[in-house]
Every structure is written in structure tokens, then in C-alpha cells.
Amino acid sequence: MGRYITTTGTAGSVVRVNTGSAYQAVVNDRILCTAGGQTITLPIYTSCVDGDTVQIVDAAGVSGSSNITVARNGANIQTLAQDLTINIANASVTLVYSSALGWIILK
Predict the structure, then answer these.
(1) Residue 31: domain span
(2) pTM for the whole thing?
(3) Coil, helix or strand for 18?
(4) CA proximity to 33, closest of 77, 86, 74, 84
(5) pLDDT above 70 coverage of the chain, percent
(6) Are strands 102-105 and 29-33 parallel, antiparallel or unpaired?
(7) From start to end of 1-107, where are the E strands?
(8) Is residue 48 part of a domain?
(9) Which pairs count as long-range contacts for 22-30, CB under 8 Å and 24+ apart, including other chains?
(10) Number of domains in the chain
(11) pLDDT tens readout for residues 13-47
């Protein structure tokens, strides 16, 4: 079982990060983006286990006009070997790691 985010943080160290610039995510991060035009780099896949989670929130509501890039850091995102672009204002994306598939977007 992976390390995951809960509303109470009981799964371990849920880190809530407010960032307006580039950021290197770690497992269990809940990243509140306070500006667009930034890159969030996912944890390196070799350090992840199945079920690890990272959440990215457009807290400022600006990603529609100033995109947030989620850099894949070696693992696929939704089975594709490309970075994810968050381009919808106020979007919230939760990614779960699978050793077989890479990062999967929860809906």
C-alpha cells in the first residue's frame, strides 16, 4: 500500500506547500500554487511505491491564463511520456503512482 493523502493527515507527513515558483514535490505533498507559470516536478519514480500520492491545487485560480506544468521526472503520466499541463483555472489534480503505469490522475 502506498503513502497517501488524507484530510486528517493520518497517513503520515502530509505537507501543505504554498508556492509561487518552481517546486520539487515529495510523496504526500499537497501543493497550493499561488501563482501560474510555474513547474511542479513529481518525485523521482525510483523512490515511489504503488499508491503514493501528490496533489496540486491552483489556489490562485490563474492556471487558465498562466499554465502550471507538472514535470513527470522519468515516469509516465496517464501512460504518456510527457509532462502534464494544468490550464484550467482553479483546477485540483491528484496523482497516484503505479509501478506498472506511472502517475495516474484521479477523477
Answers:
(1) 15-105
(2) 0.84
(3) strand
(4) 86
(5) 86
(6) unpaired
(7) 15-19, 23-24, 29-33, 39-41, 53-58, 68-71, 84-86, 92-98, 102-105
(8) yes
(9) 25/54, 25/56, 27/2, 27/3, 27/52, 27/53, 27/54, 28/3, 28/4, 28/52, 28/53, 28/54, 29/54, 29/55, 30/5, 30/55, 30/57
(10) 1
(11) 556 777 778 999 999 899 999 898 999 999 999 99
pLDDT digits (tens, 9 = 90+) for 46-79: 999 999 999 999 999 999 999 999 999 999 999 9
What is the CATH number for 53? 2.60.120.640
Which grid cell sits at 21?
515558483
Q: How far is it, in rounded angstroms, from Cα 53 to Cα 72?
A: 13
* Set of cell numbers at residue 55: 496533489
